[in-house]
Amino acid sequence: MNSKSLIWGMVGTVTWLLLIFLFAVLKGYELPNSLNELGDALAGIVAPIAFFWLILGYLQQSKQLE
């Protein structure tokens, strides 16, 4: 992965996690009681990050194929 995509990925990931953290602190979010609810919450937090990295990988591959 080229350095520009890597930097964009890191900045996007850290920004997303910071926004989630700030939302949780400001809204007084509490941890879910059951493991199922915890898994759902973690999946909701991590899924956009995974999709973002998937897009970055796709863009990198398309540039290399040119």
Folded structure, characterized:
With 66 residues, the protein is mainly α. It has one domain. It has two helices and no strands. Helix 1 runs antiparallel to helix 2 (35-65). The model has no long low-confidence stretch (mean pLDDT 90).
Give the key terms.
66 residues; mainly alpha
Distance between the termini: 15 Å
The radius of gyration computed from the alpha-carbon positions, rounded to a whole number of angstroms, is 15 Å
- Helix and strand content put the structural class at mainly alpha
Number of helices: 2
The chain-level mean pLDDT equals: 90
Major sheet: size, sense and barrel closure?
none
Number of strands: 0
For the record, the count of structural domains works out to: 1
The backbone outline, from C-alpha atoms, is: elongated
What low-confidence regions span 5 or more consecutive residues with pLDDT below 50? none
Q: Percent of residues in helical segments?
A: over 70%
Strand % is under 5%
Order of helices and strands: HH
SSE layout:
Elements: H1 3-27, H2 35-65
Helix pairs in contact: 1-2
Q: Could you write a compact summary of the structure shown?
A:
The protein is mainly alpha-helical. 85% of the residues lie in helices and 0% in strands.
